[in-house]
UniProtKB/TrEMBL annotation:
PANTHER family: CARBOHYDRATE TRANSPORT ATP-BINDING PROTEIN MG119-RELATED, GALACTOFURANOSE TRANSPORTER ATP-BINDING PROTEIN YTFR. One of its GO terms (molecular function) is ATP hydrolysis activity. InterPro entries: AAA+_ATPase, ABC_carbohydrate_import_ATPase, ABC_transporter-like_ATP-bd, ABC_transporter-like_CS, P-loop_NTPase. The keyword Transport applies. The keyword Translocase does not apply. Residues 15-513 form the ABC transporter domain. This is Sugar ABC transporter ATP-binding protein. Keywords: ATP-binding, Nucleotide-binding, Repeat, Transport.
Length: 516
């Protein structure tokens, strides 16, 4: 793609953000983010997991409300960042295509494109006119898909192009100032990536402005006019793509110096110890032929980008999902596939990523959240021993440094960090053989994070094996004895001990896909 050389992005253009900040309880997701996108340009937004990209997009879409003080300008439309609504965003001419395309597979392309605007005649849908209108949109945008086709029969690239066409279908009558694409190639087969990117280049050549979010750095460097880098919620740079190469961009994403935390003293047993967990040839869902093991006292980390299969790995080991091939051995014994009860019985414990949806019972008391993993111990002849439950809760609150007014404090009234410590304490109280942790300190303040690290380290010192999924580079460097990097549902690299460096993690994470 021929690019117009530029060392800086024009100060006024299709999009300008000034001082955009977003604070969640216990963390600041965006901190005074300011940059602009020139009109008619392919502009990429990059950063590691947790850098703030998704939060920024959700603010622009009116899903999240920013902190007071910032402004967002789109073309001639400007508004305080804390006042953005979905209606204003649409009126300002922003169109979004998310990773989840939001298409209805059982419906036709026409129905997905036109939605509630399907033409009607005599109180019924005028299908002939509808198909004609939809096909006109597809042809105008150069999308090689027939309007009458069923969406579930489309190839992934075709489905993505249909989602883009849906966003731009009124561009001939309404000014679409910005098309935002969030990881559009993340789930595309490599053979279809070029097809999509060629179509995006053609749209830009016709004057469309694109804000493109991707972890695939070759795509960013080969197709962008300019690039914005976010790291830890802070704007690092916005500059011409011609001034960047893959090595420099990787360093901007990862950071020049990491490792504020000191590397923990490993409690891992020697290599002759039998693994607590052994995964052999595990295949199912997004996972393909996964082999790994975890030994007593060892903290093994799994890193990977969106769609890499990290969370699916933990869920499959814990029995949330079944699998079609391979086996999972815990303590030398096979775990029956798709059976959470069997995993728990064999000594596995799992703390999922989404605490609010999958782990914490917000309307119940802290003591109930702590006891729920083993309610049978409080039953005697059909009677529930409530006083014993409260006494144990008091002990756990002290042991795990949970800050709560009383053991029966409603979970929703605790801070995010204390909620997470409670969820972790629920399982650590069972003395698990294997601790499966998915982003254990996400959304947790610095103080609670240090305490959670100590709990994880204590579990390893006690002989438990830990399999940790994390997007936090400092966390990987501080905790892990061994790190597997996943891409496409399989481990593509592994490092141990002193080989786990910021440079190795950054290069492997952001370049494994392109090097395949």
């Amino acid at each position: 793609m021929e690019r117009t050389p530029s060392s800086t992005v024009a100060p006024a253009g299709a999009l300008a953000l000034a001082g955009v900040t977003k604070t969640f309880p216990g963390m600041r997701a965006l901190d005074d983010v300011t940059f602009s996108v020139a009109p008619g340009r392919f502009h990429s937004l990059v950063g590691g997991n947790g850098s703030g990209k998704s939060t920024l997009i959700k603010i622009m879409a009116g899903v999240y409300r920013a902190d007071p003080g910032g402004t967002i300008t789109v073309g001639p439309h400007s508004r305080s960042a804390d006042g953005i609504t979905p209606a204003w965003s649409h009126q300002a001419g922003i169109r979004f295509v998310h990773q989840d395309l939001g298409l209805f597979g059982a419906l036709s392309v026409t129905e997905n494109l036109l939605g509630p605007d399907m033409p009607r005649a005599y109180r019924s849908i005028d299908w002939r006119t509808a198909h004609h209108q939809a096909q006109s949109v597809l042809d105008r945008l150069g999308v090689p898909v027939a309007a009458r086709r069923c969406v579930r029969d489309l190839r992934p690239a075709e489905a993505t192009l249909v989602a883009i066409a849906r966003g731009l279908r009124d561009a001939d009558t309404t000014e679409v100032n910005l098309l935002v694409l969030d990881e559009p190639t993340a789930r595309l087969p490599h053979t279809e990536v070029d097809e999509l990117l060629d179509r995006l280049d053609a749209l830009v050549a016709d004057g469309q402005t694109i804000l493109y979010v991707s972890h695939r750095l070759d795509e960013v460097l080969d197709h962008s006019h300019s690039v914005t880098v976010l790291r830890d919620g802070v704007h690092q740079t916005t500059q011409s793509a011609e001034c960047l190469d893959r090595r420099r961009l990787t360093r901007l994403i990862v950071g020049e110096e990491r490792g504020i935390l000191h590397k923990r003293a490993s409690a891992a047993a020697d290599g002759s110890a039998a693994p607590i967990l052994r995964v052999e040839g595990l295949t199912g869902g997004p996972l393909h032929d996964v082999d790994l093991d975890v030994r007593p006292g060892e903290i093994v980390a799994v890193a990977g980008l969106v769609g890499s299969g990290r969370t699916s790995l933990l869920e499959t080991i814990f029995g949330v999902h079944g699998y079609v091939a391979g086996r999972v051995m815990l303590g030398g014994r096979p775990i029956r596939r798709g059976r959470v009860d069997a995993a728990i019985h064999n000594g596995a414990a799992y703390v999922p990523e989404d605490r609010a949806r999958h782990s914490a019972f917000h309307s119940l008391g802290l003591e109930m959240n702590l006891s729920v993993a083993d309610l049978h111990r409080y039953l005697r002849k059909g009677v529930f021993r409530r006083r014993q439950e409260l006494r144990d809760a008091v002990s756990d609150i002290d042991r795990f440094s949970i800050r709560a007014a009383a053991p029966d404090t409603v979970m929703a009234h605790l801070s995010g960090g204390n909620q997470q410590k409670a969820v972790l304490a629920r399982w650590l109280g069972q003395d698990p053989k294997l601790l499966l942790l998915d982003e254990p300190t996400q959304g947790v303040d610095v103080g609670a994070r240090a305490e959670i690290y100590e709990q994880i380290t204590d579990a390893a010192r006690g002989g438990a094996g830990v399999l940790l999924v994390s997007s936090d580079l400092d966390e990987l460097l501080h905790l892990a004895d061994r790190v597997y990097v996943f891409d496409g549902g399989t481990p593509v690299a592994c490092a141990t001990g002193s080989d786990i460096t910021p440079e190795w993690v950054g290069h492997t994470l952001f370049n494994s896909t392109e090097d395949e």
